[in-house]
Amino acid sequence: MTTQARLAPAFPYDATDIDRFRELQQLAYRCAERVAAWLEPGVTERQAAARLRRELVAEGVEDFFHVPFAWFGDRTAFRHFKTPLQFFAGRRKLEEGMPYILDCAPVVDGYTADIGYAGKIGDNPLWDKIAADLREYRELIVREVRQRKPLNEIYTAVDALIAHHGYDNRHKVYPGRVIGHQVTRMTARGPAGVNVFGFGVRTLQTLGRELISERLHGRSPLWADGRSSRHAPTPGLWAVEPHIGFHNVGLKFEELLVVTEDDAYWLDDDLPHVRRWAEASAR
Amino acid sequence: MNRRTVVSGGVPLAVYEQGDPTGPTVVLVHGYPDTHHVWDDVAAALTTDGYHVVRYDVRGAGASGTPSGLRGYRLRQLADDLFAVADAVSPDKPVHLAAHDWGSIQSWEAVTSPQAAARIASYTTLSGPCLDHVGHWARRRLARPSPRHLGQLLGQAAHSWYIVLFHAPVLAPAAWRLGLAGQWGRVLSYVEGVTPRAGHPQPTLTADAVRGIALYRANMLPRLLRPRQRPTTVPVQLVTLTEDHYVSPALSDDLDRWAPRLWRRTLTAGHWSALLEKGPTVAQMIKDLAAHADGVPATQAQERAARARRGTFAGKLSVVTGGGSGIGRATALAFAEQGADIVVCDLDLDAAERTAELARFLGAKAHAYRVDVADGAAVDAFAAEVAAAHGVPDIVVNNAGVGHSGTFLQTTEKEWRRVLDVNLWGVIHGCRAFGTLMADRGEGGHIVNLASAAAYLPSKILAAYATSKAAVFMLSDCLRAELAPAGIGVSTICPGIVNTNITRTTTFSGQSADQLATTRDRVSGLYAKRNFTPDKVARQILRAVRKDKAVVPVTPEARAARFLGRVSPALLRAAARFDIG
To answer: Nearest CA to B335 among B411, B394, B383, B389?
Structure first.
């Protein structure tokens, strides 16, 4: 074990904090499910993202970690993405059989959720297949975090599972190739609701501060496969988002992983994708 | 052979019948400037198989009569001739039709006429499009003059120069009379690769050729300038001849519009050598379609054609060894994405099944087998099973391989055998088993062998691996020369450092189990950092097949090494002393 890992900070949240994070994550998934139910062929990504924002604001959301995203069709697998600007919701219209992903990160009272909701319109057997396989990634990640393996090794293990399945890694398209990032209670005092390149001003303040302080401790709040992630999981909350693609279909889930000093568990198991797996195995 | 005369539109036609009169009737229509003799080999093969084979000299050729004036050569009249012959030889049952060159052009007129559904059971066409279809084809391309479309128009124009000459007065008849007819046998021999034979060209060639010019003058301009709508419901088999100097393959791009029951096939032959050198193969193709039209269940190849998937490799069957992971899996999926059906084999059947499952999501028919490529008998059995169950493959990718690192003196005999058994013998077995099948089928194909940049990049720590890959490299070049006449291309792929699981199974000479794990981790990390993905190699493999490339170094380092090896082999030899990897 490295020196840095031994100096890992204590788990910074109490039960109330955890409940607040969980409530907000549930709220976010609820809004995403409502938008998903409203989606139909002809709706554009921009309309879907705007609707998601309205739903969240109506529920009392004050600020966003990042602006809500919506991706349709092969954009769910980030095909032909050349610049980060292509992440923003565009004019792509939803069609029958298309997969879609809604991604939002609401902030209430400094508590942050960051969720990804994958769905499809009508029939798409390939989507069903990937959606079922996604379960293995959720299990693999929490298992390896519990073993306190270095984050970059867990990233490589996820890559190996992706190769085994014959899919491709799409989270590597995110800035920094990240499969996840740390989430803290935001205390920044910048203007709420203002964003720069899709990230809230307060997010950037918080993230910037953390990047520097974590770096000083030899850790990174961003979880990727490089040298900077060569450390055991830092106790705290991690938004984890394995994003898997095959051909023109991409799927992800994103939810908070609770990492304590000696254990790890998913913040909430009452989520749409987890319920879907439970129903499938019940059948 | 029976000869009879059928009178059509006042012109007596010489009709020749052979074979079992109770068998299914096949009518063969010859082109310009031929007579029924051009079908001799095909007719003989069909007769042996119990067909009732009917040929006739078209009006103006051979022993048939001559109409007066251009009007008598109009397509409508020529189609009527065909129906008159069909009615005379098979009044109760529709006939199977096969036609070549101008015979094919006039047969299209019959096939796209209203009587066709009742009188023509199937149609195999070689080197002769429907002129109306060509008219529409050209219009569509002129209406949307993209570079590709203009290229196609220019390409066909370059093939059609003689048609312009045929419309000029005096020139063409004079050419035939003043010596071209006398030299025709030599022209066929030199330009078309046709072996001279007795009685061919026919003694009536000069008269046939001169009269036949009327075919062009009576039909070309009216049909091309004012094309009619000519669809058909008859099952059509389009045989594209790869060496045809007169009809470009692009002409048939839009044919699905007109003939929905279309089966595209390819024959490695020239305009005349198809009939005069590869008669039995053409006969087999005619039989394939005729049998299916008569109710025999479709073969795998016919089914593939009928499913009409989109993509460069639509209707093709591709076999990939070691298709359970890495470059093999990526290649199989890339072929599936481009319309091909696939068969993958691997030592790990589950992994191969997984590849097949993913390929099915891309719309392909896909099957997985467990095969050890190092086992020659197993590969032979695999090839036989594939041919029986799915048809002879069009593309075979010998990809299965193992990695091994160790200097010459470290490498044990057992390790040498394992590396050579898989990497070299695996390729030999694959090439022999499938190459034989492909050559026998006679429709061409492509073999891809996965070598490595190590094939030309010496390194002291890759003694066995590099040796096996260098052998594959040379083997492929020799095989390419051997199979070229059969229309089977052979490509050697030299990937370089690609992020696959080969590093996870690579063995290292003289290392303990603990050391082995560390070394594997280190090398895998190195390969992951290089991060050249297998799908990029797959893309290069598809390109190599499409363009019939001989050698394809893939990654920049593989290309750089190949370049350096040519400029300064001594430099590479010096570099081979370092421990790399």
So the answer is: B394
When CB atoms are compared, the residue of A166, A168, A247 closest to B354 is A166
Amino acid found at B423: N
**CATH 3.40.50.720 residue ranges for chain B:** 317-575
**Chain A: nearest CA to B149, how far in angstroms?**
26
The sign of the torsion formed by the CA atoms of A61, A63, A64, A68 equals positive
pLDDT in tens, B430-462: 999 999 999 998 888 999 999 999 999 999 999
Give domain B2-297's CATH superfamily: Alpha/Beta hydrolase fold, catalytic domain (3.40.50.1820)
Inter-chain residue contact A166 with B355, CB threshold 8 Å: yes
Edge-to-edge, what's the strand order for the sheet holding B488-494? B366-370, B341-346, B317-321, B395-398, B445-450, B488-494, B551-553
**Does the distance separating the beta carbons of A156 and B528 come in below 8 Å?**
yes
DSSP annotation of B220 reads H
Model confidence at B576: pLDDT above 70: yes
**Residues of B belonging to the active site:** 465
> Residue B252's pLDDT is what?
87
Residue with tokens 């008569």, as numbered in its chain:
B294
Give which of A62, A31, A45 is closest to A188, Cα–Cα.
Answer: A62
Cβ atoms of residues A212 and A205 within 8 Å:
no
Tell me how far the alpha carbon of residue A17 is from its chain's centroid. Answer: 19
Asked whether the beta carbons of residue A166 and residue B358 sit closer than 8 angstroms, the reply is yes
User: B420: closest CA among B465, B479, B476, B478?
Assistant: B465
Interface membership of B517 toward A (CB under 8 Å): no
Structure-derived torsion over alpha carbons of residues B91, B97, B103, B106, reported in degrees to the nearest 10 = 70
Inter-helix orientation angle A151-165/B349-361, to 10°: 70
Q: How many residues does chain A have?
A: 283
- pLDDT value, residue A1: 44
Q: Name the domain count of chain A.
A: 1
Q: How far apart are CA B9 and CA A18, in angstroms?
A: 95
With contacts defined as CB-CB under 8 Å, which chain B residues touch A159?
Answer: 528
Pairing relation of β-strands A115-120 and A180-183?
unpaired
| pLDDT tens sequence across A89-116 | 999 999 999 999 999 999 999 899 999 9
Report the Cα A94 to chain-centroid distance in Å.
22
Give dist(CA B202, CA B209) in Å, integer: 11
C-beta separation of B163 from B220 below 8 A: yes
Paired tokens of B179: 């010596």
> Structure tokens of B566?
């040519």
**B331 at A interface, C-beta within 8 A:** no
Tens of pLDDT, residue by residue over A130-166, are 999 999 999 999 999 999 999 999 999 999 999 999 9
From CA B486, how far away is CA B449, in angstroms rounded? 18
Q: How confident is the model at residue B581 (pLDDT cuts 50, 70, 90)?
A: very low
At B199, give phi and psi (nearest 5°). Answer: 80, 5
Domain coverage including residue A178: 3-282
Alpha helices in B484-512 (DSSP H): 502-505
Mean pLDDT of chain B: 92
Q: How far apart are CA B520 and CA B518, in angstroms?
A: 5
CA distance A257 to A240: 7
Q: Token pair of A212, please?
A: 């520097």
Helix-strand-coil split of chain A, %, nearest 5: 45, 25, 35
pLDDT of B298 > 90? The answer is no
**Which architecture, in CATH terms, is B317-575?**
3-Layer(aba) Sandwich (3.40)
Contacts of B317 by beta carbon, 8 Å cutoff, 6+ apart: B300, B301, B304, B340, B341, B342, B343, B390, B391, B392, B393, B394, B395
Helix (H, G, I), strand (E, B) or coil at B195: coil
State the pLDDT at residue B158: 86
Residue A37: which CATH number?
3.90.230.10
- Tell me what ipTM this predicted complex has: 0.89
